[in-house]
Design a protein that fits this description.
It holds the Pfam family Transketolase_C_1. With 340 residues, the protein is α/β, with parallel strands linked by helices. The longest helix is centred in the C-terminal third of the chain and has 17 residues.
Length: 340
């Protein structure tokens, strides 16, 4: 990376910050940002915007493209990889640099996200990748801006990956929550009231079902929920592992914490973390949560991501396992919601 690259990134960031876009979905937020970078007079020569449907900038033609454009510029690539093999090829073509935005999650397929489960597993295991699953346009915008700064101003290696959907009913993101969101999670909604409460974590499209589950718990079972939007379970788990390793190697030094522990500190109520990806994406958080932890994903209780009814029932079961409610309430909930 050169000083010219950093300057280009700053121009892109400043121009995007000057825009006041209406609230939109993650997909249309990225499309609007791509249009600004590609066509705005201040940025059209400062960034590369590659669209998967563009015949002039196909990934197969990139070796010659980069041969003619040897100076790195901020890269925003809109693609629709359905498998880890396709994404791996794309990452090799981009030299594992840039902000890669996948809109395959808006398309119908056998899985909830329209992508093969191996794609999510490859993202989580690739140390060069920082994957995000935003729930709203506000979250998406914050991630892209943070990625431009981290990759092209700070010069960090690797690439950012965003899973996009086209629903615009996600939470808004207050300015004071942006840094927490980029770290992987931030709290939404009010603090839970009453004696019985759980903590519900949701990522991307799964957050909508989490919000509905919270309403079911309160209305039907008098259980309050503390709600968290989790933009990156993988980033949370990586930071937690890094802090644990550092503490192990420095027994005399002050212990390091992590964003996950900091967010969930001060409460001992059960934590239910939900994703539309396979459950294994969330499982690594369990070792770093000092409370009963339930991970839910595609395949946990049904082929797709768990719906609001399963989330509510398993939250009740977590309370029953701790002796906070009677087990018969869990059985009643299974019958009431007709779950088998």
């Amino acid at each position: 990376m050169t000083a010219s690259t950093a300057q280009s990134a700053r121009i892109c960031i400043d121009t995007l910050n000057d825009q006041q876009p209406p609230r939109s979905s993650p997909l249309y937020t990225v499309m609007a940002m791509a249009n600004t970078l590609e066509f705005h007079p201040a940025t059209r020569r400062q960034a590369w915007v590659i669209r998967g449907q563009s015949h002039s900038r196909r990934i197969t033609a990139w070796p010659t493209w980069f041969a003619r454009n040897t100076e790195e510029k901020p890269l925003l690539y809109l693609h629709n990889a359905t498998s880890s093999a396709q994404l791996r090829a794309l990452c090799q073509g981009t030299d594992q640099r840039g902000i890669l935005c996948n809109d395959i999650h808006t398309r119908p397929a056998s899985g909830r996200h329209g992508a093969h489960p191996s794609l999510a597993l490859w993202l989580a295991s690739n140390p060069q990748c920082t994957p995000y699953d935003p729930a709203s346009g506000d979250e998406t915008r914050a991630i892209v801006l943070a990625g431009l700064h981290a990759l092209y101003v700070d010069g960090r290696p690797g690439f950012y990956y965003l899973a996009l959907h086209d629903q615009d009913d996600g939470p808004g993101l207050a300015p004071q929550d942006r840094q927490d969101a980029i770290k992987g999670m931030y709290r939404i909604g009010r603090e839970p009231a009453g004696e019985l409460h759980v903590r519900l974590l949701g990522a991307g499209r799964a957050l909508e079902e989490v919000l509905h589950a919270a309403r079911l718990l309160e209305t039907d079972w008098n259980v309050s929920a503390q709600l968290w939007s989790c933009l990156s379970y993988t980033r949370l788990a990586r930071e937690a592992r890094a802090a644990e390793r550092w503490n192990r190697l420095h027994p005399l030094a002050e212990k390091r914490s992590c964003h996950l522990r900091d967010c969930l500190a001060g409460h001992h109520s059960p934590v239910i973390a939900v994703t539309g990806y396979p459950q294994s994406i969330v499982d690594p958080l369990a070792a770093h949560v000092d409370a009963r932890f339930v991970a839910l994903g595609a395949g946990s209780v049904q082929p797709t991501a768990p719906d609001r009814y399963w989330i509510a029932v398993l939250a009740l079961k977590a309370l029953a396992d701790e002796g906070r409610i009677e087990v018969r309430q869990v059985e009643r909930a299974l019958q009431q919601y007709a779950l088998k």
